[in-house]
Write a structure and sequence with these properties.
This protein is mainly alpha-helical. The protein has six helices and no strands.
Length: 272
């Protein structure tokens, strides 16, 4: 009886070990498939996608939308009507002054009050964004996201090619690490472009809010046009930088492709 129980337990252990081996084998095969997929995608990106994209962005830079001669052409009218000025009487008569202050308090006005008029509704409807800049931003943002995604794929590919840590013969590994660092830098810069676009909208919205509150102040309206011009120039620079980053990455990786793929001639085992 005892032998039967021991034999059954032993068989259960063997079965469990076989299940574990099968699971591990399946996981390893899935990891290998992932590595092969990343390798195929990354090599295609470097060989084909990067040069095509840099030429595409170079053509984009030559389009009329990015070559406006007079920046006044990108200005957007802000439809805010200037209300009639409020006339306050400054009587030196004590009774008139007291009655005047009473009326001011009832109307929500005070001598020390410096706030503009409260805005509950815009007679002309919603104040629109700068349509030309919005259209341009909607073309640039997908290009930024594409660069971030493609850099992430190539970075993962290079990281998977890094061999285990060993003494000596690490020149090829240093090239891999420099390539990863450059890809990471490009990712960070591209992400900052998206943040810059968000800050433009926030800054412009605050200025437009100031205009609705202080419509008599011309400087606020001029500041909005200055912000629009600055953003237009920034968007052109962003497109130029995106093109340059594709050029730099393509050139850097192709020049060092042998060392990136085979950092050590005697040991090709990867770190991961």
């Amino acid at each position: 009886m005892a032998r039967g129980v021991i034999g059954l337990s032993f068989n259960m252990v063997l079965l469990s070990l076989n299940v574990i081996r099968c699971v591990r084998k399946l996981l390893f095969s899935q990891v290998d498939a992932f590595r092969e997929r990343i390798t195929g995608e990354a090599e295609n990106l470097v060989a084909d996608f990067f040069p095509k994209k840099l030429l595409e962005l170079d053509s984009f830079l030559k389009e009329p939308i990015l070559n406006v001669a007079d920046l006044k052409d990108i200005h957007s009218e802000i439809n805010v009507k200037v209300p009639d000025p409020i006339i306050l009487n400054n009587s030196h008569d004590g009774v008139d002054v007291q009655n005047s202050r009473k009326r001011k308090m009832e109307d929500g006005l005070d001598d020390n009050c410096q706030d503009g008029p409260k805005v509950f509704v815009m007679p002309g409807g919603m104040i629109k964004s700068n349509g030309q800049l919005v259209d341009l931003i909607e073309r640039v943002k997908p290009e930024i996201r594409t660069l971030i995604e493609k850099c992430n794929t190539v970075k993962m590919w290079v990281q998977l090619l890094i061999p285990r840590i060993e003494d000596g013969n690490n020149f090829g590994v240093s090239i891999q690490e420099e390539t990863v660092a450059e890809l990471r830098t490009v990712e960070g810069e591209a992400a900052s472009y998206l943040d810059q676009i968000s800050r433009y909208y926030i800054t412009r919205a605050k200025l437009v809010s100031k205009i609705t509150k202080y419509p008599h102040v011309e400087d606020y309206q001029r500041t909005v046009t200055e912000i629009d011009e600055k953003e237009y120039i920034s968007l052109k620079i962003i497109v130029s930088e995106l093109r340059n980053q594709y050029v730099t990455l393509h050139d850097m990786i192709l020049k060092n492709i042998e060392k990136i793929k085979r950092p050590r001639s005697s040991n090709n085992e990867a770190l991961y």
